[in-house]
């Protein structure tokens, strides 16, 4: 199998953490690609019509794209238990991905637009989403986050670390002490340390 990736992506990191946790890291060749909405990577276009990362090329089927699809495939392939809590795991994964979505949109706004056209209102709206989701995690999801490892924890851990990496001005820890403590501990996992964005 071949994984098309960029190491800073929180979606790619989620896949890499799953590979680490399920013992499949050595079974996947990694190909670094640079792709943006304005300049899609040619190497991706033949296999992945949306030219987004991550994309997992398989010898026995079509290329998989979207981190949720790839992670569920890898979990099933390894007969792992990252989705053992069913819809609870999937809802928390979607919640973590919502943080990543907002943070990546902020990154594109800052990096893809000319400086004089950056929309501060858009950045503020995405920051507010990150803060709202962080508050919801504190209010609703702490017992799940502190339970056995699953895909929801991986998605949230990768997403919050991406916010710290790209947007340290977004203070998601304020008022969320339990979430901050959980995240600090989660980052100590070998799979998270091995996949730290650069």
TrEMBL record:
<dbReference type="GO" id="GO:0005737">
    <property type="term" value="C:cytoplasm"/>
</dbReference>
<dbReference type="Pfam" id="PF13410">
    <property type="entry name" value="GST_C_2"/>
</dbReference>
<protein>
    <submittedName>
        <fullName>Glutathione S-transferase</fullName>
    </submittedName>
</protein>
<dbReference type="InterPro" id="IPR036249">
    <property type="entry name" value="Thioredoxin-like_sf"/>
</dbReference>
<feature type="domain" description="GST N-terminal">
    <location>
        <begin position="1"/>
        <end position="82"/>
    </location>
</feature>
<dbReference type="InterPro" id="IPR004045">
    <property type="entry name" value="Glutathione_S-Trfase_N"/>
</dbReference>
<dbReference type="InterPro" id="IPR050983">
    <property type="entry name" value="GST_Omega/HSP26"/>
</dbReference>
<keyword id="KW-0808">Transferase</keyword>
<dbReference type="GO" id="GO:0016740">
    <property type="term" value="F:transferase activity"/>
</dbReference>
<dbReference type="Pfam" id="PF13409">
    <property type="entry name" value="GST_N_2"/>
</dbReference>
């Amino acid at each position: 199998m071949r994984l098309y990736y960029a190491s800073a992506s929180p979606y790619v990191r989620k896949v890499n953490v799953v590979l680490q946790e399920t013992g499949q890291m050595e079974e996947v060749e990694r190909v670094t690609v640079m792709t943006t909405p304005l300049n899609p990577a040619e190497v991706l276009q033949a296999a992945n019509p949306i030219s987004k990362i991550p994309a997992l090329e398989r010898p026995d089927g079509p290329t998989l794209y979207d981190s949720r699809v790839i992670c569920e495939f890898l979990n099933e392939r390894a007969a792992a238990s990252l989705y053992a809590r069913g819809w609870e795991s999937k809802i928390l994964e979607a919640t973590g991905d919502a943080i990543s979505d907002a943070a990546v949109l902020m990154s594109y706004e800052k990096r893809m637009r000319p400086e004089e056209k950056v929309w501060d209102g858009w950045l503020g709206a995405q920051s507010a989403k990150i803060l709202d989701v962080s508050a919801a995690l504190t209010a609703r999801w702490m017992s799940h986050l502190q339970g056995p490892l699953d895909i929801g924890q991986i998605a949230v851990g990768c997403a919050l670390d991406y916010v710290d990496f790209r947007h340290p001005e977004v203070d998601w820890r304020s008022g969320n002490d339990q979430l901050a403590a959980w995240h600090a501990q989660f980052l100590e996992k070998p799979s998270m340390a091995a996949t730290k964005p650069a």
